[in-house]
Design goal:
CATH architecture of the largest domain: Sandwich
Largest sheet: 6 strands, mixed
Structural class: mainly beta
Distance between the termini: 10 Å
Low-confidence stretches: 116-135
Order of helices and strands: EEEEEEEEEHEEEEEEEEEE
Number of strands: 19
Mean pLDDT: 83
Helix content: under 10%
CATH topology of the largest domain: Immunoglobulin-like
Number of helices: 1
Strand content: over 45%
CATH class of the largest domain: Mainly Beta
Radius of gyration: 19 Å
Length: 255
Amino acid sequence: MVLEREMENPPLTAIQIKLPNSSSVWISPGKVKIEWETKNIAAEKTIQFYLTKDDMVVQELGIFENNKFIDNVVLDSGLADGDNYSVIGIELFPDNKHSIAKFATPFFTIKKAPREERAVAKVAENKVVKVAEDKPMVREMFDGRNLNYINEIKVQNENIRINLRDHGRVDGDIVSIYLNGEAVVSKYLLTYRNKTFDIKLDPNKPNDLFLYAHNLGTSPPNTVAIEIKDGPLSEKIILNSDLKSCEAILIKVGN
């Protein structure tokens, strides 16, 4: 999308997850339901959900439109029994650059399914999804972690500037930023203060820019606000990453 100037002084937003709650028992593998309420978040906006165990992200549950609930979320088959699971919800692409809505549920329980149910779930895991032939070839993994592309933007200049800061609560997040597989920001401790970097894009291909988390801080996952400056224009991008996956964007030069 073409870069646009941001809204000024949008209202503060909030998320509250109603389900799961402290009484919930999820069965793994299996399909589960998430219910939530929001404040000042439009229905067409998206929210990302994570499953954590003892504050460590163990599964990305998905990115969903703000329709207050989602059914048939598939749990990973490798989740262990435990009563120390929590779901975290994070607002994506907030209008207010100074605030991001984030909520973590109380601990709840996950139990393993009987053996015969696990065998059925295995068939679904092995299903092959065909990728459209006209989709551009992009990097899908890095250092054993999946890359999840959440946005694509266009800029006019090969040389751009990025401002980097923690988005949400400062909690000791250490990150690197990679451009086309090369570190342009290495093992940086995030703060509320912007850190500015100049980078050069390849004008002949889509450039992949992604967030690599070296830890999870005290409030996982790592959430970073990146401002991309393209001459007089700017775009705010929010990236979330953990120790299993990295969120990424594609940047193209030209019209």
